[in-house]
Design brief:
Length: 399
């Protein structure tokens, strides 16, 4: 099958976009051809490079939803971009088009382009919160436009968790429920002997003492990820005389705020920000406990990679998190911003290496069973076949 994936081009480093690289890899592994369309914006260069080993990357000068002041309203009104993308799809003639959306209002111009091109298509929606529920400007109007569009089109939509399906059905209405299909995110195994052997060297690079327990985070340092609360968790553990260090692999708008906050608490040594890395898999085994204190999420690829690496996780009780972490079995699930609960969970794991090992072993087993690339790609492929009616037309490769 010839598949065209379309990125909403919101940026290369978020898990919702990296998903495309993983999906392309999985589909190619099953013997299918993949092309990926994305913006020419420099922020997409890293994702383009990650996808190139698995498929042909096509670049067009596309404006993404987050560059529009009115967000989805502007996308729906951008008939020129819809026309250009529809023409591109028509010229490429794929068997199926798959539009990747961060949230339901993201990439609506791309969805309408697929409609205009009259090819079988579906979308993936990672975060299923309405704009109004997130306190977004003009949220009521933006949600209304999104609801009207989804009521009109009849495409299938992938969501990454059972809870996401329930949330989106409750928001957009019962009619859409039958067109929502759960396909959990998948990642490749990220642990090997070399990565384990590098643990001591990486920890030394971070300035971690031999007796310290590393609390690790991976991702954008943005409000959604709750970085200041992550620091509060580490500071609370330190106040309990637990030798911890918070290591954050990633970067973002709140990096300076986080560093200044640590300095104001005379606790700069408690925090190490590693920045963006291309070798995260090599560094994961240097963590002891994986933290995701986010305010909302889809199903984070970083969490799944941490599980593959055999790390016990402490995560917020939001969205899809409990579908990956079974509280008390392969980690702990805590209410967002409930510092006493997080403090207790960190204390239990930090004080008990055997418990960390048992929970990490259980996390890796769940990752192998439920969150592999092959599982994600195969389930998505079933939806492609359903979208084209079970008869794949023979065409030249998407290239």
């Amino acid at each position: 099958m010839n598949v065209l994936l379309i990125s909403s081009s919101s940026g290369s480093r978020g898990g919702g976009e990296i998903y495309l690289a993983r999906l392309a890899e999985g589909l190619v592994g099953l013997g299918h051809r993949v092309g990926v369309l994305m913006s020419t914006a420099p922020v997409m260069d890293e994702l383009a490079a990650a996808i190139e080993p698995y498929g042909t990357v096509h670049r067009l000068p596309l404006r993404n939803t987050y560059d529009r002041r009115s967000r989805g309203l502007g996308a729906v009104a951008d008939h020129d971009q819809q026309r250009r993308v529809a023409q591109f799809i028509g010229a490429l003639a794929p068997d199926v088009v798959h539009v990747n959306q961060q949230v339901a209002e993201d990439g609506l111009d791309l969805v309408l382009a697929a409609e205009r091109a009259r090819v079988p298509y579906l979308t993936t929606i990672h975060v299923t919160h309405a704009a109004q529920s997130l306190g977004a400007k003009f949220g009521v109007v933006r949600d209304l436009v999104t609801w009207q569009l989804f009521a009109r089109i009849k495409a299938r939509h992938v969501v990454v968790a059972d809870q996401a399906r329930r949330d989106l059905a409750a928001w957009l209405g019962s009619d859409i429920a039958k067109r929502l299909h759960v396909v959990h995110n998948g990642v490749r195994p990220v642990i090997d002997g070399q990565a384990v052997a590098a643990r001591s060297a990486v920890r030394s690079e971070w300035g971690v003492a031999h007796d310290q327990v590393v609390l690790g985070c991976v991702g954008r340092i943005e409000e959604q990820k709750n970085p200041l609360f992550a620091f509060a968790i580490a500071a609370a553990a330190k106040a309990d005389n637990i030798p911890v260090k918070l290591v954050w692999i990633g970067d973002g708008a709140l990096r300076r705020t986080m560093e200044e906050h640590a300095a104001s608490q005379d606790a700069s040594a408690l925090l190490h920000i590693d920045g963006w890395r291309n070798d995260v898999a090599r560094r994961l085994p240097a963590f002891d406990i994986f933290l995701i204190p986010s305010k909302f999420e889809g199903l984070p690829l970083a969490l799944l990679e941490g599980m593959w690496a055999g790390l016990p996780a402490i995560v917020s009780d939001v969205d899809a998190m409990p579908e990956a972490i079974n509280d008390g079995v392969n980690g702990f699930v805590c209410p967002p911003d409930d510092l006493p609960r997080w403090r207790e969970a960190v204390s239990r794991l930090a004080a008990d290496p055997a418990l960390r090992h048992r929970m990490g072993f259980a996390a890796a087993a769940v990752a192998r069973e439920r969150f592999g690339l092959g599982v994600m790609a195969a389930k998505t492929l079933d939806l492609y076949r359903a979208a084209v009616g079970g008869s794949v037309r023979e065409k030249s490769a998407v290239a």
